[in-house]
Amino acid sequence: MAPLALANRPALRATAAAPRRPARRTVVTKAALLDPTLVVSGSTAAFLALGRFVFLPYQRREANFDASVGPKTTGTTYFDDLQKTSTVFGTNDPAGFNIIDVLGWGALGHAAAFAVLAINSLHA
């Protein structure tokens, strides 16, 4: 078929009729009980606060590791070598809350928030 023959078909011709408006549809929106942004931010902030003010002393304690950790090859234990300050993980926080702690506690906060949102979506 030639292109001109297709243009002459009744179904493909342009008509002067007014365009039809689509039928009105009712849109049902379901409001979430919990705002995800607030849940994730609040949970992350809560876990960071717990990690800094509650659990940090337990993470940093030294409980008789002097004789029980690692072989003594140079007069110091492996644990003593780990306690040396590193410039990468340095912090100005008086308690020593560093970037590793922030990433770890922030990840836990996000995981808890997503669990709360997932459980909340089951009941909706």
Characterise the protein shown here:
This protein has 124 residues and is mostly helical. It has one domain. The chain has four helices and no strands. It is elongated, with a radius of gyration of 32 Å. The mean pLDDT is 77.
Helix coverage percent: 40-55%
Mean pLDDT: 77
> Topology as H/E string?
HHHH
Most strands sheet: none
Shape: elongated
Distance between the termini: 57 Å
Assign the structural class, choosing from mainly alpha, mainly beta, alpha/beta, alpha+beta, or little secondary structure: mainly alpha
Low-confidence stretches: none
Instruction: Count every helix, treating DSSP H or I runs of 4 or more residues as helices.
Output: 4
Number of strands: 0
Integer count of domains: 1
Q: Give the assembly state of these chains.
A: single chain
Radius of gyration: 32 Å
Question: How big a fraction of the residues is strand?
Answer: under 5%
Q: Topology, pairings included?
A:
Layout: H1 3-7, H2 36-60, H3 78-82, H4 99-123
Helix pairs in contact: 2-4
